Amino acid sequence: MKHGKYRFIAGFLVLPLAIYAIFVISPFVQAIYYSFTDWTGLSPDMKMVGLDNYARLFQDDVFWSAVGNSVTLLLLLPVVTLSLGLFFAFMLNVGGRRRKKAVIGGVRGSGTYKILYFFPQVLSVPIVALLFQFAYNPESGALNAFFDAVGLGNVQPDWLGDPQIALWCVMAAMVWANVGFYVVLFSAGMSSIPKDFYEAALLDGANRFNTFFRITLPLLWDTVQTGWIYMGILALDVSAFAFVQIMSVGPGGPDYSTEVLPLYVYQKTFRDGQAGYATAIGVSLLIVTLIFSAVVMRLGRRERLEF
Amino acid sequence: MSAQTDPADLPGVTKEHPPPPGASRLPGPRGGQGRKDGAGSGGGSGEGRVLNVFSHGVLVIWGLLVTMPLLWAVVSSFKDDTEIFGSPWGLPSVLHFDNWARAWDKAHMGQYFLNSLIVVGGSLIGTMLLGAMAAYVLARFDFPGNRFLYFLFVGGMGFPVILALVPLFFVMKNMALLDTYHGLILVYIAYSLPFTVFFLSGFFKTLPTSVAEAALIDGASHTRTFFQVMLPMAKPGLISVGIFNFLGQWNQYLLPTVLNVGDPDRKMLTQGLVALAVSQGYKGDWSGLFAGLTIAMLPVLAAYIIFQRQVVAGLTAGALK
User: Fold this and answer.
1) Is B213 part of any domain?
2) A254 cis-preceded (ω within 30 degrees of 0)
3) Residue B32: which pLDDT band, with cuts at 50, 70 and 90?
4) Rounded to a whole number, what is the distance in Å from the CA of B279 to chain A's nearest CA?
5) 3-class SS of residue B88
6) Which of B66, B72, B222 is closest, CB to CB, to A117?
7) A75 part of contact set with chain B, CB < 8 Å
8) Domain ranges of chain A
9) Tens digits of per-residue pLDDT, A18-34?
10) Contact B109, B272 (CB under 8 A)
11) Cα(B120)–Cα(B126) distance, rounded to whole angstroms?
C-alpha cells in the first residue's frame, strides 16, 4: 500500500514537474548566470565578466529612464486603477436612491454596468493597444477629431508623439483595460458587507463619504491589497511590455520617454544582441519587483477584520 | 454627442420611483437630529436624489468610455479608408463587407485564428490535466519535499516572465521547439502551472476526505479515485481555473512574440493582429485593419456575454482566494 502510494505520487508529479523545471525554473536560474557573462545571444561563446554588466547599468541613461518610467507606472497605475475601481464599485452598491426598507442600496441597472465595465478585461492587450493607438493618431484619430468637433480645433496634441505626455497616454490605456475587473471584484466584496453596518453608521449621523472610509475600505482591505500586488506586477512585467511595445513610437520613444524595463530587456536581447547585459537588466527588474512586494506586504499589514 | 444618453436615462429612472412622501431616515451629519425616527418609509430626500443623479451620471460616462471605442472599431470596419479619415465619427455610407473578407483571407486572420485555436486547445487540456494532477498530490498526500515542491510551483507567480525569456528562447532552440505548435503548447502549459496549482490545491484541500477513502476501501486505485471521484467533485474549481487559463492563453502576447517568429503563417491571433497593424499601416489599408481587429474582438466578447457569470467568477476567484 505504502509502496503504491509513493509510486502514484511520483507518477502524478513527474510530468508537470519536468515541464515546469525545463521551461520555467531552468531559464530563471540560467538568466542569473548569464547576467555575469558577456554573452551576445547569437553565438555559443561567452566569458565570465563578473559584475561588469551591473557596473555598466549605472552609466546607461536609457536604463535609468526605463527605471524611472517603470517606477512611475508602478506607483501611479495601481493608485489610479484601484481608486477608480473602488469609486465606481461604491457608486454601484451604495449610490442608489433609497428604496423601501433598505437604507442603502445599489443603483438601478448595476448588473448591466458591471457587464459593460468588464468588456476590456476579456480583450487581449494588442486589441486594446491598437484601439488606443487609433484614437491617439494626431491626424485623423478619434480624439483630435473630437476636439475639432467641440470647437477645440487649435488644441491638437501629438499624443503618443509628444515625449511630455506619451507615457500618460499609454497609462490611460492600461487603466481603461483594468478598471472593470476591480469594479466587479470590489462590488462582490462590498455586497457581502452586512447592511446593518451602514444603517448603524447612517443613524449615528455619518455621511456616505465617511461610511466609505470608515466601513467599506477597512473591510475590503485584503482585497485591495491583493489587487495592489497584482496591478504592480502588471505594471512591471508582461502588460507594460505589450502596451509600450505596441503603442509607443519606436517602440519606447519618443526619446525613450516610454521606455520601460521589460521592453528594454527585450530590445537588448533580440535587437542589439546583448543577451548577457539584458539579463542583468532583467535581474534589476526582479529586484524592483521583490522590493515592491515587500513594501506592499509591510504597509498593508494590519489587523484582519472579521465579519 | 456622447453625453446625450445620460440625461435621457435619468428622468425615466426618476419617474418609475417617485419620491415617496415622508421624512428622511438618513439625517445628514448636521441638522438631522430631529428626524431620526422617520423609519419605515423609504426616503426620497434631496441627498438621495442628488446622489442618485450624480452616481448615474458618473457611471454612464464610464460606460460610454468603455463601449464607444469598441463600437467605433466595429463601425469603422465597415467603412472605406476615405471615410475612416474623413469622418472618424460618422456612420459608413455603404457597408463594406469586403474589408472583412480581405482581412480574413489576404491578411491571414483566418489562419491566425486557427493557429490560436490549436495551440490554446492543446495547452488548455494539458494545463488542466497536469495542473490538477500536481495540485491533487500536493494538496492531499504527505511526503518528504511536499512543501518545497508546492512553493517551487507557486513561486513562479511572482517572478517577471521577461527575465526567463532570453534563456527560454535558447532552451527551445536547442530542443528544436521554436515555431512549432507543440513547443508553444508546452510553454503555455509551463507558465500556466503556477496559478493552476496554487488555485486547485487550495480547492482540493476543501473537498471531504471521506468520499476518497470510501473509494479506496472499495478497492479503487489512487489513480482511479482521482479520475472517477475527485476530479468530478472538483468541477466548479476546474471551471473557474479553466476560464482563467483560457482567456490568459488566448490573449497571450509576450510568449509568442519571442518564441514564434520564424514562419509568418504560424502566428497567433494577437501576434498576427500586431503584424497586420504594422504592415497595413504602411500599405494604408486601414479598413482591413479595423476588420481584422473586429474579427479578433467579437468572438471573445460574444463568448463573454453568453458565459458572463462564469467568466467573472472564474477571473475573480483567484483574487478573492
Assistant:
1) yes
2) yes
3) very low
4) 13
5) coil
6) B66
7) no
8) 58-298
9) 999 999 999 999 888 88
10) yes
11) 10
C-alpha cell at B162: 521577461
- A275 at the B interface (CB within 8 A)? yes
- What is the pLDDT, as a whole number, of residue B128? 95
| Architecture of the domain delimited by A58-298 | Orthogonal Bundle (1.10)
Q: What is the CATH number of the domain that holds B154?
A: 1.10.3720.10
Collapsed DSSP state (helix, strand, coil) of residue B282: helix
CA distance B241 to chain A (A): 15
Q: Which residues contact B42 (CB under 8 A, 6 or more apart)?
A: A98, A99, A100, A101, A102, B20, B22, B25
B88 CB within 8 Å of a chain A CB? yes
**Cα nearest neighbour of A281 on chain B:** B163
Residue B11 covered by a domain: no
Domain that holds residue B285: 97-318
Tell whether B274 lies on the interface with A, counting CB pairs under 8 A.
yes
The conformational region for residue B141 under phi > 0 = left, psi -120 to 50 = alpha, else beta, is beta
Q: What is the 3-state secondary structure (H, E, C) of A206-228?
A: CCHHHHHHHHHHHHCHHHHHHHH
Q: Is A48 helix (H, G, I), strand (E, B) or coil?
A: strand
A132-136: long-range contacts (C-beta < 8 A, 24 or more apart)?
A132/A169, A132/A172, A132/A173, A132/A176, A132/A247, A132/B69, A133/A160, A133/A246, A133/A247, A133/B277, A134/B73, A135/B69, A136/A160, A136/A169, A136/A247
Q: What is the mean pLDDT of chain A?
A: 84
Rounded CA separation B217/B240 (Å): 31
Let me know if residue B19 belongs to a domain. no
Q: For chain B, what is the domain count?
A: 1
Task: Tell me the three cell numbers of residue A176.
Answer: 481603461
Q: CB-hemisphere CA count at 13 Å for B5?
A: 12
| Percent of chain A residues past pLDDT 70, beyond the cut | 93
Distance CA A212, CA A104 (A): 12
pLDDT average, residue stretch A157-173? 86
Pairwise CB contact (< 8 Å): A28 & B43:
no
pTM listed for this prediction: 0.84
Length of chain B as a residue count: 321
Q: Is residue B251 part of a domain?
A: yes
State yes or no: cis peptide before B19, omega within 30 of 0.
no
